[in-house]
Amino acid sequence: MQLKKIEILNYKSINTPVTINFNYGEPVTLIGKNGSGKTNILEALKQTLGSGRTTAFSHNSAMQGTYYFSLSQEELDMYFNHIELNAEDELIKVDYCGEKPSVRAITSKVVQISVKEFHDELEDILSDFKSASRTYISNLKKIENDDYAYFNLYPQIECESLKGSLTHLTKRILGDVQNQIDRQTKDIKEVLDYFKGDSFTLDSFNYSKLNYSYTYPISLYTIKEQELLISPIIAKSIGLTKEALEKANKKFSKELLRINDCLKDSYDRLKTQIERFEQLKNKISSVFSKAEDNRYTERDERDKIKQKFLQELKNAAFAHCYYLDNETTLLFSSSRDNEYAKQQASQINFNYRNPILEALHIFLSDKGVYRENESFLEYDKLSQDRRTKFIDLINKEFLPMNLPEFEKGEIKGFILKDESNTPELYVIEYNGTEINVNNTSLGRRWYLTYLLIKSILKPGDILLIDEPAAFLHPQAQLEMKRELNELASRSIFVIYATHSPYMIPENWGNVYNVKNTEAGTQVTQLNSDDELSYAIKEELGITRSADILFNLDKTLLLVEGVADKVCIEKFADLLGYDLSIFELLPCNGSPILDVTHLCIHKNLKFKALLDRDNLTKPPTWLAHKFGYKEYLDIIKNNKDCIFTPANGERKCLEDCFSETDQAKYFEPNNKRQQKISPQKIKQAIEFTLDTLNNFEQLFIQLGIPKLDKENQ
Questions:
Q1: What is the 3-state secondary structure (H, E, C) of 563-594?
Q2: Interatomic CA distance for residues 441 and 470, integer angstroms
Q3: DSSP per residue over 403-441, as a string?
Q4: pLDDT classification of 224: cutoffs 50, 70, 90
Q5: What pTM does this model have?
Q6: What's the CA gap between 164 and 225, in Å, rounded?
Q7: % of the chain exceeding 90 in pLDDT
């Protein structure tokens, strides 16, 4: 998991989203005027990247923003199934507000359970139950004691209940049995109606539909096995012969046996369907209970994955982050007054770590000189002889190795001393004088703070610096820039704000122009394409090309040479034209074609005043200038590219001067050196009316605005 960018949504002067991209191998450079919001961006990044602590900053200005991470395919497969994350441009989006980022575990998925088999089996149970109940009731009615149509020739038939008791079957008892069957039928039907669809969601399943369905007892009645015969007296009274009487008794006994068998069979069928119904209810409960258990198990698993992701997130975003400015984060202080408060502020900005002791600790650990449970981080626990040994080793090997290049020739070196149970660092001047670092220049104290932090940085760590060039001379600034580029190449995130052209990366790589607008702090990221930076650096030099960066809010006005620049400034002043929104950049000769083409290609705000002789370059010249023919085709069709007047002999800015205006000649008697003289232009007080008119028309063509009369 790699942090790719942070979108700052709200922090102090930042009211609209500000996006900072983290490109591995390139430092992030923030440029802009004082008060534009560069420090606020660094503080917002510190607040989010520094383990989420807000102690060093106002709680009323808590940063709100969004992290964007790139995940490997393995991480995507692991996390996306368990955590609710947004994806944008193949990056994972995680919200941040206040003190820590937040991710949400995916809510339980809707569990669909097929219930068609339950429905089909319930229909089968209900059908069989109804069929068996009809048969059972029908046969019970045949032996009902009040029905004399069939059994009026016989004594009352006794029935045996399930418990073995004997009774005479009456209409009341028969009605009770019918009620028992009806209630059980209704219960089966209600459950059947509940599962009438093909599928059921786990969340919509109601256990009470099963738990509150009852098994209603149904009474079993069968004919007691006994001799049932027509008495001879009744037989004689109805005129039955002995043979007819025997035949009638046999037929009656056979019918009784048949009815008894039907009663037992139909009752067994009833009981079987009731048992099936109970088993099916248990099965349904088991299926839904198992699905519920699985959902809880999955939820627990998601929570575990979420916690693992948060840990990975902490490792990726809340790396060791160090924030270094010029006020509260120096490890060395020029005053002992309020030292504790400064130390606490430094600890907050260094994630509560002490880079001095840690740098020395790492060095000693790598040297393998520690005994068990020894650490320079616990200096007060070391014995005096061990302190002496460690300090000697640091003075011989560590400090000489970390002497800055720009300090060589200025001082002899550094020395560490044990004073009052505290390691104190001293500078050794060339005359042998030892001065406590706290009493040296602010630039040196700042650089030593940076140097010690640098020595403990590891890949993935983050270094935020506000104004690294503030107290360093140009040579030191260039060395600092090389070091920051080298740190970035080691996969260390480096973000710094600067006003110095010496601190601008050669390729303009990850440079952000910070502006303070009506909507608050806003940034514009330059294209990291090497073409622009290389060409402009080649033609203008690194410090002059940096002028473009530091004036991106202005329109770049390209002219051919310093003399042309002086002319534009001189006549704008004389004629009352406003150059405040322009940044004049002189490009000698053919380089103006390079720079103009790149400004078009990179969509920079610009105007270009080119000599007309560029349009009449000979083919031999163009053949040796790769791409110039194509450049000219693009430039001459661009509305922001203006060529000097067409009616002049020399096809350059000189043609704006009248023939009688001698201020334009550098060496008027040398025909090979007929160039505009910056010195004479500056010194000239009056120009001819033709010259003034020519320059006025040129300013109108360039779109340079006229100053208000009140402001002139």
A1: HHHHHHHHHHHHHCECCCCEEEEECCCCHHHH
A2: 12
A3: --GGGBTTB-EEEEEEETTEEEEEEE-TTS-EEEGGGS-
A4: confident
A5: 0.58
A6: 12
A7: 19
